[in-house]
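A quick aside before the break. I want you to see a complete sequence-to-structure record at least once, exactly as it would be stored in a machine-readable document. Don't worry about memorizing anything.
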Amino acid sequence: MVTKETIKNFNYFKKYFSPGLRKFACCVLTAVSFLALTSCSNPLYKKKFIILGTYLEITCADKEAANIVYQEVKRLDKIFSSYDLESELTLLTSTYNEPFKCSDELIEILRLSKDMYKFTNGAFDVSCGVIFKFWKTLITQGEVKELPTQEKIKELREKCGIENIVINETEKTVVLKKKGLKIDLGGIAKGYIVDKACQKLKEKGIYNALINAGGDLYALGTNNGDPWKIGIQDPDILGGIIETQILIDEGIATSGDYEQFFEFEGKRYSHLIDPRTGYPAENEIVSVSVITKNCTTADSFATAFSVMGVEGIKAFLTKNVSTMRIFVVTKDENGLSVDLFQ
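That is the input. The structure line, written in tokens, reads:
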């Protein structure tokens, strides 16, 4: 789980890296779903909510688990939401060059985000909210008549920069040194929230549950003594399951462009923006699914790896050999294929 003691410097992420790497080709792996394993002695209770701009589904033998998780998710959404005009994050991004008093959770996730920026050489950058919003607006418009000029992208990039987010952990304040800078936690917040919800369950004495927040999923403990069985969905077949994974105390997150994109002059552009260029990521990746010991790591690395591309992932793993299971789905003239890095 996410604790202050485990995330100083890069320790939080680095503990999921150690020797061992292999690769093989198999079927396509994309978004996740839960394949129920039933038990007569301890039936599972499943409840679904709409929150975080997606669905939240809790599966557990304890009836109280769903409400415990929902209340924690609702509390944290009030901190991290970029759509709530009164959220803590929104209030922070309306300031400029003045200390803003932050909650422990916002300080923590911003520190993690700055560490991820360094760890991925800028492929993960929460300071680029202005650019992300610009491209998201284009996508929602549907038909794009013309792409933005280089001058426009340069103008937007001038309002970014992770170094302009200055954290004072002693005073619990954050200062934004760049006027107009907007923070977007979309690539890490859901995973972090899922981890915190799991932590809350354990505080209440519940050690076995499955939490799924729109594809960011954590398998806490076991399913009546058996591992949780997670289905990997085929992006080309609605509801199709093409592969399964067995999880115990692990999280999984998927990032991909198969659901959100736009086309211009016959070319497809991803909603995944490369913060290093300010443009949609251009690579052969359809999706990346990351399985590891917490959802914060899975969520943020899935985002970064989708931007890096296959060669970028290989280069990263050459320097940081991983214990994570990383499923990379690619597409070429021969169709879809997947590499597993482990």
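Two observations worth writing down. Confidence is low (pLDDT under 50) at residues 1-10, 17-31, 36-40. The radius of gyration is 20 Å. We'll return to this after the break.
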